[in-house]
């Protein structure tokens, strides 16, 4: 098949679970590379493991990609010239490719059972040999094969490697990687139930879809040698690879379900923005002068031939929180309102009765202080679920003598005021007379009315709560201060 000159990359998830960060990073890097090279981004669903298919029809995967803004050019629901885009619908293509290998004598039937193969593996390890298949079934005569077939003995097809050959894989990060095929076993193309293996189906799809570049995890590096042998057998140019470092947790262990953020759904439910997740996964493991970038800026900034070649990259949730905070800070207020509403309404159903003007006022007060959308729940609890602070909280910030002076100032200011404007003027006057730093009075008002010492302007607090509610809160707390 003639190789297309246009760059073609693919993201090939298996719908056996929720999308995790490793999946998402592969999708991001494929998408960014296609955008950078004006190429084609393809989604292909590897759904051949029907027993483990968690996401039938890949509906969740497709929805996640749409949410992330990774819109594909070919794939499920979009179509394209190289469909179908579900592996479960491509058996005819795999069978046809297998038939060509059989006709060329490049594969053979293996009747060894799983138990027999395991015994051979243990014996080889016991004598210090690498556990490779001993090609016992390659030595079977035609008569012996016919007898085993007549007995309906299960078998798989194995690819016959040329152990005198070596293959070269071009990797954007690693350069040329040489593999001596004498170090590899003849690998299975099918399973004993007749289904096709990951390595073979993956190869056939990449060949028939004219994939030019393959981006995937470092753990697939050795698979490349087997797939390179298949490309050579079909006389098809080998794609260029990029084997990316595996994401690990802060302790250096491979990310697992126990790690927060392993699942994309975890991050979405915790209030991380799609743009922030894409941004973080685009810069992780590399150094950039400007770290906050949208997808178009990532396409301009990433040099795929200079990416990290270390085996692992640490996933740092605190760095992700920092990136997310930057994106939240930059949101237009109406967009912030749209994204924050589900989190607010989930925690405070009565928030649905408020008009957008008041909600915007509340959100503007806290936008620069939160890291995730879910943080709006705690940040606005002073409005929707107010709990008066204790005297102990005030004492964390001021001495008992200072608290008494501030109380005296606030009592006088409240007595002299009947609205927010006069109250603000009065506290400035009394602070000057009593020689109390105005900052200390503002901190106390925030602590009493909003349970936070910083961030919210007193004028905004009055506008949001109303002067009467603010005054009631101040009175109730000051009445408890001895």
Description:
The protein is mainly alpha-helical. It has a domain at 386-478: Arc Repressor Mutant, subunit A (Orthogonal Bundle). Helices cover 46% and strands 9% of the residues. The protein has helices at 21-36, 59-68, 91-103, 114-126, 142-150, 198-208, 223-233, 264-269, 274-283, 295-301, 317-329, 333-347, 356-366, 375-379, 381-384, 391-395, 400-415, 420-433, 438-450, 458-465, 467-478, and strands at 8-11, 40-43, 107-110, 156-159, 166-171, 175-180, 213-217, 240-244, 246-248, 312-314. The strands form five sheets. Strands 1-2 form a two-stranded parallel ribbon. Strands 3-4 form a two-stranded antiparallel sheet. Strand 5 (166-171) and strand 6 form a beta hairpin. Helix 1 crosses helix 10, helix 9 (274-283) packs across helix 11 (317-329) and helix 13 (356-366) packs antiparallel against helix 20 (458-465). The longest helix has 16 residues, at 21-36. The radius of gyration is 32 Å and the shape is elongated.
